[in-house]
What we know:
By secondary structure, chain A is an all-alpha fold. Chain A has helices at residues 2-18, 25-43, 45-71, 74-89, 101-134, 138-142, 148-180, 187-212, 217-232, 234-243, 247-258, 268-272, 279-306. Chain A has 2 domains: 1-43, no CATH class; 56-306, no CATH class. In chain B, helix 5 (100-117) runs antiparallel to helix 6 and helix 9 packs antiparallel against helix 10. Helix content of chain B is 59%, strand content 0%. Chain B is mainly α and 409 residues long. Chains A and B meet through helix 2, helix 5, helix 9, helix 10 and helix 12 of A and helix 1 and helix 3 of B.
Amino acid sequence: MTQLIYSIHAPMLLQMQMAGKTFGPMFIFYVISAVLLLAALFLMRRRLIFGFRHGIPAVYRISGMTFAETWRRKIVQVIIFVAAVMLVGMLSITRLSPGEPQKALVSGGLDLMAGMGALVAIFICAFLIPTDIDKRTIYSVLSKPVKRWEFVLGKYFGAMSVVGFFVAIMLVVQLAILASMHYAIYFMPLLVAGILTYIGIAVFAAAVLAISTVASSLTTVIAAVVFWMIGSLSELSHSFVAGAEGPNQAVLGFLSAIVPHLDKFNFRDDVTDLLVINPFLVIQALLYAVGYITVCLIIASFLFNERQV
Amino acid sequence: MKHHRGPTALLLLIVITTLILLWPLESRIEKQLTTLHKSKAAQADLTGLPSIYRFLQLAGLNALLADVLWMKADALFESTSWWEMAPVMEATVKVDPHFTLAWRVLAWHYGWNMFIAEPGRIKREQWLQKAADSYQEGTKQNPKDYDLWWDACFFYMDKVRQYDKAEEFLDRAHKNFPNRLDTIERCRQRLYERTWQVDKAVAVIKDILKKRPDDLIAKRDLEWWTKIGWGTEAGPDINWRWVLEVKENGVRKSRDLPAFVNPFEGTVVDIPPWRDKRALGTDYIDPNWIPDLSRYSLESVQMILQSRPDLAVMWQKAHPEVPLPAGILGKAMPVHTFTPPKTAAPPSTGRLPGEEMRKRMMQRRSEMRGRRAEMRARRGLGGPGRSAPGGPKGGPGAPAPAKNPADGK
């Protein structure tokens, strides 16, 4: 395959080498993928435009309904309350860090937000679609002119609005604590880090939702926890992949690629040290998030479309 | 349900191409994050700790894990479980390399607490090496933390007396924190004086006076140097290292401390005339020590001549044209009271020499025992020495450690 690419694109490679840079065959592969993606989007442009026009009101209604239902669930309210209390309780840890209590608060608060946010996302997304199928309430929605992909998207955005509410509450509590300790300098960095944490949770939730369209609630929860752990320890998974050989490396590499890596959205160190968050890195992380969420939602819609309810 | 194969195939193509394009983006982000965020949480050793620590490690909640580990380390310190405390703190700094307080306490714990608690002399050096490694790594990870830098300088200057390393750290600390006059700048001055780099010491004093013109200590020190001959025509001929060694040992003698010997002697620095086999170390007032000081300039040996009128007479005979300062000749010989150690200082190799360090430690211990016996005899107490109750687990009678490095040894 590599030789084929070389033979077809040798003149182009030569030109690139003459320009002072050398691009390998993988670069050609990516360029071809990008061209194919654009071609597919172009070919589907009418369907996409029609889908957006017709789908947005339906998605909006379903997401509003999902928000109202999910917000009323006791488990979500309990998790939010416990998280807020834990955040306030972190003030007790600051006595062990004399001279830098604000760092302990900021870094611990962001970690708590990420951890509890992922927990909320698991409990919401894992039970959204399977519960509707089990209770047969899905029929009342699908009997109306609502497409399945609109249903999936509506559920996702509804769940994300609850998670966004949770992250906002956590941010407000944390900012209030920092304000009471006269550490207003952390406001803007914390806000940016909080938004990025929310986007990381959104990526994770998209993967959980995709699994929940075909699996039961319990299976989805277990798979989500495993995904969370693999995704959090990306340095470990990368070293595993690097250490493997032959087909094992390909398999592990593929698994590592499909699991969302949540550390891309973790800027805790930069915030605690009041460093400027690299905007280029943030843009790349956002691109990754948009791409990954799109892929997960397309897969979720496709799987749900094929599912017999 | 109608199956639209065309749109399905296109959607599949979109999914596959997007995943392919996400792959290099993900690697690129990963590479940038690896250089930015240096946490090695996955490598932290949590053996023996409850499973909740492992769960936090697997969940990637590094800040919470670092806080919980720190609480554990605090609990272990309060219960004087020093050996158990060290690996917990190692895990803390691996999980959160920017937790500067953990670095400071870890290095301090190795260099002072574990050093004192360790009964074996060879292993004591290993604790000092671990402290040095911790300071190196901590300052590398946190180049902007003043307290950590200052602790590292204090460690090399005062604890291990490794002046080459201390100079390296102090120079870097001076670049990072140029306005810390009372700590870093004064320490630099003392270091240059101890290593006999007088020009640099005076340059630091002048720099302090430039930044703080009414600094009394700097004014006093500059006045002393000017009085002793720095900056005069005789300046280049003066053997400052001997002047400083005599000055330093005068202070140490009054505090009943062991004599100062430059660790670079015989390598970077010449051996002074009193460091010969017949001399009892650095006891200049010992009447049995009669070196030939006639080859040396007055300023180099003036401080010795002040305490040795017999040598002053010999020196004056060799240099009749140079008048001695008033009061040197005609003084009575002082009574010999101090017996310094006999061993010569080994050359510094950048690491602590095992054998020489051990011998020095043994000699100091026997001296301390002798002094304690003397004091007990004076107070009318009898019997062999007893260990103090309530000492740390590893070392009976060892003094209770201070947690804060700034509190002293």
